[in-house]
Model the fold of this input.
Amino acid sequence: MNLASPLENVSESMKTSQREMLIIEYLPLVKRIVHRIAAHLPSKVEIDDLMTSGIIGLIQAIDRYEPARGVKLSTFASYRIRGSILEELRSRDILTKSQRKNVKTLEKITLALEQKYEREPTEGEIAQEMGIERKDIQKIKKFSGMAIISLDEIGYSPSQKRPKLMKFLIDGNIDPLSLTKLKELKMALVNAINTLRHKEKMVVSLYYNEELTMKEIGEVLDITESRVSQIHSQVIIKLRKRLYKIGVIN
Done:
């Protein structure tokens, strides 16, 4: 097994050439990640800007890749690309404070009503508790759908001073305690997914495991693309609600 870095033990000119070849080879990966993230963002966010951030992440991945860690370059690059895009989006703060507040309120009230009624509350019940129109619930759910980005940032503690999951995945420096916490987080997420309905699980599997687009998922499940997007938003709310309930996120 050759653990040599693709850019090690070569001349500067050859290193530059190989670097350029790797960038070209992994550009489709950047494009795929950008479009998957952009599917949850407002139309005002420019795809070209995200592509630029993604390419920067790709270049960083190529320059910092260490095969000895036993991680594939494509895997390492994916985390770097996604991390770079998320940093760009964080700097823009695509959701207003009011929108973020509404998302959190929706999640907390949904959880409270679920505990009260011992079942999943209806949109009408949630709207009544929040003092808003039922149609506004769908708008808030759309904002929550954008919050899939924050799942990449879930840490093992609500403390803002604690390292985040994305940092661990990118840097690879995980101490035994953190590794245990991350395993607990993974198990919590698996358990949360197991509570989903069959079609919701299908959307999660097809979107995150098979990496199909929402349009392709709609074709597989014989439903509209907008319905897939709606199910996806509902899934995110449910997962965040479950993780919030057990204290994984705040």
Remarks:
- The chain has two domains: 12-92, 97-245.
- The chain has twelve helices and no strands.
- The domain at 12-92 is CATH 1.10.1740.10 (Rna Polymerase Sigma Factor; Chain: A).
- Residues 12-38 form the longest helix (27 residues).
